[in-house]
Amino acid sequence: MRFPPGTPDLEVLGLLVSVAELGSLGAAARRHGISQPAVGMRIGALEKRLRLRLVDRGPTGSTLTDAGHAVVELARPVLAAGRTLMDGVADLQRELDPGLRVVASKTIGDHRIPHWLSALRKLRPELAVALDVANSEQVTDAVRDRTAALGFVEGPHAPAGLGNRVVVTDELAVVVAPGHPWATRPRAVTLREVAGTPLLWREKGSGTRDTVWSALAIHGTPVRPAAELGSAAAILATARSGTAPAVVSRLIVAHELRAGTLREVRLADGVVLARKFRAIWHRRTPPAGPAADLVELAVRIEEARIRRGSRAG
């Protein structure tokens, strides 16, 4: 079948539908993980291709024209058919490929999943596992798109529309360089003070960032970051330099605290910052076989680790 010249691709139709649903180019950009100018350029190219004005752009947001609304309604069944096609292809791939594709957030991928996969290999030595590491938002997208059978994410809330199981609760620590005023301050630091202090933040889409933002936003909108960094290693190195405080997983910072290169800040009122590590999956394909084994092993390993830590304490 040959399509008429100028037929738009599914991705740009999806962008237009997101603009209709969310009311702005910026919100559509965040949903699709691209920049707002990129959304504007792609919608503009679609308008030229269709020779229709689809969006009225204003200072308070973007609204669809009558033609835009008509195109969105025509696009919805096309996008639904595209999703059905890709779901069917994913089912075929799983039937033909005996391996397991997993995607994990950076903290989990660097510090926990190697232990889980090692246990899975002992249970299923014949299984080929492909592991990708990304931030929690990208992991969620991969599971929704069914490019991964199983994901592991970190954050305060379960991703909407996906099945999930909590594997373990991970504590976060506020840390500073030994020379920072908070390192030797006798009085505990309040979350309001933390919210009002420029911090070292992970990039947008990170589960750690979402957790910290949710905890601090209760006490006022967090101020502009001192820096936004794409990895925990970069945050630790920058915190050691004394640039600013950071909020990081205890799994990541434990060695630094033991060595004294970073100091943990005591929070007022015994506040504990924590987030959940979750296994997530597409609701149409709940974990079975190797995927179910991996989730169960992860839960058991983390429960055993916590028990050992309690006995040691």
TrEMBL record:
Keywords, in A-Z order: DNA-binding, Transcription, Transcription regulation
Cited Gene3D superfamilies: Periplasmic binding protein-like II, Winged helix-like DNA-binding domain superfamily/Winged helix DNA-binding domain
Organism: Nocardia thailandica
Similarity remark: Belongs to the LysR transcriptional regulatory family.
Family annotation (Pfam families): HTH_1, LysR_substrate
Protein name: LysR family transcriptional regulator
KW Transmembrane (keyword) present: no
Keyword match Iron: no
Top-level taxonomic group: Bacteria
InterPro entries: LysR_HTH_N, LysR_subst-bd, WH-like_DNA-bd_sf, WH_DNA-bd_sf
Domain named HTH lysR-type: residues: 8-65
